[in-house]
Amino acid sequence: MFSDLKDKAGYRQPPVQRQSGQGMVLADHREQPPVQRQPNRTGLPDQLKSGMENLSGMSLDHVKVHYNSSKPAAVQAHAFAQGSDIHLASGQEKHLPHELGHVVQQMQGRVQPTTSVSGMAVNDSPALESEATVMGARALQMRRNHSLVESIGSETRSVVTAQRVENHTTVQTKRERVEDEAEALK
After folding, report:
1. Is residue 34 part of a domain?
2. Can you tell me the distance from the alpha carbon of 71 to that of 155, in angstroms, rounded to the nearest whole number?
């Protein structure tokens, strides 16, 4: 009798229940609307986004990647993460997995300022830098099976990365050799 009540979209309306202490509570067997997969409008490659979401257990739908950004130069970096925004200087896309790791660290509330660069709060923690590198590599490996480690292993240049958040939040920077990072992942 009540199972016939449906809303305009065709889904069963939730029942109104009252508990008086004498009656029993009925189980909720409503049909749930289908899960709608949201299009990826973040600027992140799909496999990196899904890999990091699976690794962290967090949705990254709010992340925005700014390619060819001039802002990293302000903190003497090739790339940086500021809240849910990732800024990459021209040609620095290889830093995207690492910077996405910093976004997750910031979402978890684990980034505190340790210094400043050009008046901006910065975190240069070697532990957080290393963790972001490993997180980025693992997120890609979830789909690519170690191809990131192979590509990083061929790099030998020094890189500068930054995790930056304004307004009493933190930026992370550190110089590391990509070759050393690749060895740590093997």
Report:
1. no
2. 24
Residue 117 falls inside a structural domain: yes
What is the rounded average pLDDT for all residues in the chain? 74
Per the structure, how many domains does the chain have?
A: 1
User: Distances in Å between the alpha carbon of 168 and those of 62, 100, 171?
Assistant: 21, 20, 10
Give the domain range for residue 67.
46-144
pLDDT tens-digit readout, 140-162: 998 554 444 444 444 433 333 45
Instruction: Look at strands 115-117 and 172-177 and give their pairing.
Output: unpaired
Instruction: Assess if residue 133 is contained within a domain.
Output: yes
pLDDT in the model for residue 120: 81
> Burial code of 53-79, b = ≥16 C-beta within 10 A, e = fewer?
bebbeeebeebebbeebebbebbebbb
Percentage of residues in the chain with pLDDT exceeding 90? 46
Output the pLDDT for position 143: 59
